[in-house]
Write a structure and sequence with these properties.
Elements lengths: L9 H44 L4 H9 L4 H23 L5 H27 L3 H30 L2
Helix pairs in contact: 1-3, 3-4, 4-5
């Protein structure tokens, strides 16, 4: 949506879409890795304190060590989730030449994906499906509007 506000060519959309997928996936991966790694360090330090203070039995200690979170796994899951979601608009519009149609397809495909991802998250988390789906779509529309608006504003003032 962002570059679509400034450049109407399909090559620009695909190139910036791919770089957005990669950049976004890397960003969410590191954003997930750091807090999970910190949490793991805190848990390991607590285990060491408990060992020194003899605050736990061997069974509890083994269970706690086994259940430490894996920052790489968390980062990979976040990156993969982002990449799958961010690829949806590219796949939905990559072959459409006419700008207005392509823009409409992106909005429709993204809205459908947001609706489905919201429903899936609600089902997995035991939350109300309608509410989660609705707010997922609204949040996505707001994000698309902000991205498109800012890109258009920057493009208008910078001469892109």
């Amino acid at each position: 949506m962002g570059i679509g506000a400034v450049r109407k060519g399909i090559k620009s959309m695909i190139l910036t879409g791919i770089t957005g997928v990669v950049g976004g996936a890397c960003s969410v991966a590191i954003g997930e890795f750091l807090p999970v790694y910190s949490q793991r360090d805190i848990e390991k330090a607590q285990i060491k304190r408990d060992i020194n203070l003899r605050n736990c039995d061997d069974h509890d200690l083994g269970k706690r060590k086994k259940n430490l979170h894996c920052p790489l796994r968390a980062a990979g899951a976040s990156a993969l989730s982002f990449a799958v979601g961010a690829t949806v608009p590219l796949l939905g519009s990559a072959a459409i030449k006419k700008y207005e149609v392509r823009l409409g397809v992106v909005i429709a495909v993204v809205s459908l994906a947001l609706l489905m991802f919201g429903a899936l998250a609600a089902l997995l988390g035991g939350a109300p499906v309608y509410r989660s789906s609705f707010w997922g779509v609204v949040g996505g529309w707001v994000a698309m509007g902000i991205t498109s608006g800012l890109t258009k504003l920057i493009g208008d003032y910078s001469g892109f």
